[in-house]
């Protein structure tokens, strides 16, 4: 037996074979070949595999997000066999006597450039589809593992750490739990685990080694303990905790359909945080009242080029429609700092957490912002969409955002495109600056949502990604809780609602404090909804105190 100790960042107990995340190199290098028939056979096999993958994605998308969202993948599958595209690949293959992946890349670049140069906006948008299909065929030619996991059975996924773009590409159906050498409770691996409702442990360091692959690991996401091939006593302990976990899950099922209201009648909105349209199924399965944070950056992190208006519209529309009139708060592009996107070609910054990120990028790149706002407002015709701007520090930023929204609405009016003219506009409170001017900001918007991860980082001068800061990164710090109170008082003075969309919202030990402060909404990972509901229904708002703000 081998015992490892890390930091638990997503509760739960699970077991399964250890599998180390594969990073594959999809770099295409031209090679001269003599056996063209062999290259053609490789190409045919890669095309067939690509079509199978795309059809599976279409079926899954149809089940999760509806027919229209599935059409995109079906269209991609048809393009794999497009006569003109295939002819271009074959011409390159034969004229250059080159390897199949180089021929596919060359054809893809030619077709993408051709579509990008067209006058029609819809046809220009197809350039991104061509790049996506070309990339998929190349990956299959090079043997790149889709989703980073080449396993027939679900696994406990191990890694040094995972970048945001990598977590988005994972085949989530094959993951039982996570364990990483680095990372922190605010890493994207941890956030993904909490969204999926599976255990995760970070900070295992060099004790987590590649040679452990294939061994059976038992992991406890609450204590941060890992046992490889446990002895009888350790195994019995894990199994007892697993049994208790399953019993609690059955008990939580009884919370479905119940109201989120305290014993003395105080209502609390309990919403969910999601990272992609695929997460909506978890929201519905856990009976979330709505979506309080839809991280739109997933579209940018997954793409190899700027996502088009149509691509974004289809994603936002799918989520809005699936929620059937429940509020869906969509955060505008929030990249920078730890979320880097290569094609944005951002300058290297000494301190990116204090640099050009989130709303600063949008206001500096109005065309990128306009594209997203058009997609968001178009989607508002299909559900209760609310638009939320991140990293706000000043009133002028909000007014610039509102002006951008007004321009987009005027464009849509002129084009006769339907949208909801009463779409709510909100901002994230995640810096001390926004707290100090919250009274002025509240006059400009319909709601506040507090990002407690960043608010803690900027208030305490602690890097949220640094695992070794330990007790210094303390979301329970009185300064953070007092900031919450200040923002809440400012919101309520102007008659707007305020929520928490950071990880702190799911902290059951702070529920009474949130009730005393006056928080109206808590947006949490889907797996946290029912435990939070159970605690709310046991609470008495009138007896809640502000004691923790004084300690």
Show the helix and strand layout.
Blueprint: E1 2-5, E2 7-10, E3 13-20, H1 36-65, H2 67-80, H3 83-96, H4 100-116, H5 121-142, E4 155-159, H6 164-169, E5 175-180, H7 188-196, E6 200-202, E7 216-220, E8 225-228, H8 232-253, E9 269-274, H9 280-285, E10 291-295, H10 297-302, H11 309-322, E11 328-331, H12 359-364, H13 366-379, E12 385-389, H14 395-415, E13 424-429, H15 432-436, H16 438-441, E14 447-450, H17 452-460, H18 478-493, E15 497-500, H19 511-517, E16 521-524, H20 529-538
Parallel strand pairs: 3-4, 4-5, 5-6, 9-10, 9-16, 10-11, 11-12, 12-13, 13-14, 14-15, 15-16
Antiparallel strand pairs: 1-8, 2-6, 3-7, 7-8
Helix pairs in contact: 1-2, 1-5, 2-5, 3-4, 4-5, 11-13, 13-14
Structure, explained:
Helix 1 (36-65) packs antiparallel against helix 2 (67-80) and helix 11 packs parallel to helix 13. The chain has an 8-stranded mixed sheet with strand order 1-8-7-3-4-5-6-2. The chain has an 8-stranded parallel beta barrel with strand order 9-10-11-12-13-14-15-16, surrounded by 5 helices. It folds into 3 domains: 2-21 and 148-252, 3-Layer(bba) Sandwich (Glucose Oxidase, domain 1); 36-142, PtsI, HPr-binding domain (Enzyme I, Chain A, domain 2, Orthogonal Bundle); 254-549, Phosphoenolpyruvate-binding domains (TIM Barrel, Alpha-Beta Barrel). The protein is of the alpha/beta class. Helix content is 46%, strand content 14%. The longest helix has 30 residues, at 36-65. The chain has 20 helices and 16 strands. The mean pLDDT is 91.
């Amino acid at each position: 037996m081998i015992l490892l100790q890390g930091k638990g960042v997503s509760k739960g107990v699970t077991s399964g074979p250890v599998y180390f995340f594969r990073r594959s190199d999809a770099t295409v290098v031209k090679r001269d070949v003599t056996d063209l028939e062999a290259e053609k056979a490789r190409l045919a096999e890669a095309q067939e595999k690509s079509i199978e993958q795309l059809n599976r994605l279409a079926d899954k998308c149809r089940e999760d997000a509806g027919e229209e969202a599935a059409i995109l993948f079906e269209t991609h599958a048809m393009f794999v066999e497009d006569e003109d595209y295939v002819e271009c690949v074959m011409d390159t293959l034969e004229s250059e006597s080159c390897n199949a992946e180089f021929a596919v890349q060359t054809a893809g670049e030619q077709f993408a450039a051709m579509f990008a140069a067209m006058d029609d906006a819809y046809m220009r948008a197809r350039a991104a589809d061509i790049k996506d299909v070309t990339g998929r065929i190349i990956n299959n030619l090079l043997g790149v593992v889709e989703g980073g996991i080449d396993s027939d059975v679900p696994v406990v996924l191990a890694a040094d750490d995972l970048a945001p773009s990598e977590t988005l590409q994972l085949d989530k159906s094959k993951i039982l739990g996570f364990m990483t050498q680095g990372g922190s409770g605010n890493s994207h691996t941890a956030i993904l685990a909490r969204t999926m409702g599976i255990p995760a442990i970070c900070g295992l360091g060099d004790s987590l080694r590649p040679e452990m692959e294939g061994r059976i690991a038992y992991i406890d996401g609450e204590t941060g303990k890992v046992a490889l091939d446990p002895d009888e006593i350790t195994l019995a302990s894990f199994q007892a905790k697993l049994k208790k976990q399953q019993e609690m899950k059955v008990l939580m099922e009884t919370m479905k359909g119940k109201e989120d209201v305290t014993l003395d009648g105080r209502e609390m909105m309990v919403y969910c945080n999601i990272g992609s349209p695929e997460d909506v199924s978890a929201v519905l399965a856990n009976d979330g009242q709505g979506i309080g944070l839809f991280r739109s950056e997933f579209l940018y992190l997954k793409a190899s080029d700027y996502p088009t208006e149509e691509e974004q519209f289809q994603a936002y529309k799918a989520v809005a429609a699936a929620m059937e009139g429940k509020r869906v708060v969509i955060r505008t592009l929030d990249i920078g700092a730890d979320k880097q996107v290569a094609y944005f070609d951002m300058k290297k910054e000494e301190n990116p957490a204090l640099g050009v990120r989130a709303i600063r990028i949008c206001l500096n790149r109005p065309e990128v912002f306009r594209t997203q706002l058009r997609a968001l407002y178009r989607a508002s015709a299909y559900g209760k969409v609310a638009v939320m701007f991140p990293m706000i520090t000043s009133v002028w930023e909000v007014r610039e955002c509102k002006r951008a929204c007004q321009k987009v609405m005027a464009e849509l009016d002129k084009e006769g495109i339907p949208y909801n003219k009463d779409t709510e506009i909100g901002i994230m409170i995640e810096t001390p600056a926004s707290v100090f001017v919250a009274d002025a900001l509240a006059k400009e918007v319909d709601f506040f949502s507090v990002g407690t991860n960043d608010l803690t980082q900027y208030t305490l001068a602690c890097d949220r990604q640094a695992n070794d800061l330990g007790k210094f990164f303390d979301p329970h710090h009185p300064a953070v809780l007092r900031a919450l109170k200040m923002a809440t008082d400012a919101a309520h003075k102007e008659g707007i609602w305020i929520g928490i969309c950071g990880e702190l919202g799911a902290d059951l030990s702070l529920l009474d404090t949130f009730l005393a402060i006056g928080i109206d909404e808590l947006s949490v990972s889907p797996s946290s909804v029912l435990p939070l509901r159970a605690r709310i229904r046991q609470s008495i708002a009138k007896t809640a105190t502000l004691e923790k703000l004084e300690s």
